[in-house]
Design goal:
This protein is α+β, with helices and mostly antiparallel strands. Helix content is about 25%, strand content about 30%. Strands 1, 2, 3, 4, 5, 6 and 7 form a seven-stranded antiparallel β-sheet that branches.
């Protein structure tokens, strides 16, 4: 695999076919690192962003969800977008990544503060399984990103 996947890296994936609902479209994903070596299937954890702010407003289907906003002005994302911490990370196998590699483009890397905030948001929201949180924490720490004990 030519694509380098590392925690904190942001990728633009054209025709993302692994989404849980909706139509086939380009998605922006944040890599949280690889799965545990003890897992039967090896792969990587990703979070995907949304530009649909309306569903998070009062009366919207996701009103009250814990989120983190990213701005296009940071130079990585092309549009302002949100992470919804009530959505579990995607686990995409190494085999699937290799198959779709030509559709995946590296866009940039988030800083340690953003990654700490993402980990803490996932933990606080309570929708990500403990084993996945452990993988993410270990991946971030291996990448030199300190995770505080909150």
């Amino acid at each position: 695999m030519k694509l380098t996947l590392e925690p904190a890296c942001v990728y633009k994936w054209k025709d993302f076919s692994h989404q849980r609902y909706g139509t086939l479209k380009t998605r922006w994903l944040i890599c949280l690192g690889n799965t545990s070596h003890f897992e039967q299937v090896q792969g990587f954890h990703f979070l995907t962003t949304t530009t649909n702010f309306d569903v998070f407003k009062s009366g919207g289907a996701r009103n009250g969800h814990l989120t983190k906003q990213f701005f296009a002005s940071n130079g990585i994302f092309e549009q302002d977008c949100l992470l919804d911490f009530h959505e579990q990370p995607y686990m995409i196998t190494t085999q699937q990544l290799q198959k779709d590699e030509e559709h995946i483009e590296f866009k940039g890397k988030l800083g340690a503060n953003d990654m700490q905030s993402i980990y803490n948001g996932l933990k606080k929201a309570g929708y990500t399984p403990a084993v996945v949180l452990r993988d993410i924490k270990e991946n971030l720490q291996s990448a030199g990103i300190a995770i505080s004990k909150r």
